[in-house]
Amino acid sequence: MQHAQAAQTHTVVLCQPTREISSRIYSDYERTEDSLDGIVQMYETRLKQENPRASDIQYDLVDLLNFIDSLTDISVLVLEPSTKLYKPYGRDWIKNKVYSHIKRQAC
Questions:
Q1: Of 35, 43, 72, 91, which one has the greatest count of Cβ atoms within 10 A?
Q2: How many whole angstroms separate alpha carbon 82 and alpha carbon 93?
């Protein structure tokens, strides 16, 4: 039951891709799963920027996890419905959730 609740929970992604403070961004999502998709989309956007002439860009899960590690900072805030407070999670939690999310989609 908790997994279903978490998937339906408002989530905010806080990210600082580079050392520049001005690179800080945030995105909010209605569902935690959507925030994981958003993190994947950040990586895919970076790949497209780095390879503008490529018509087909492929990567594997390790590449995605390495991207998350390469960010200067990344964390998420997940709304806990019972307390109506946001609970912070760091890079390792994000990597574990992204890993599980991608594996579920591949099945």
A1: 35
A2: 21
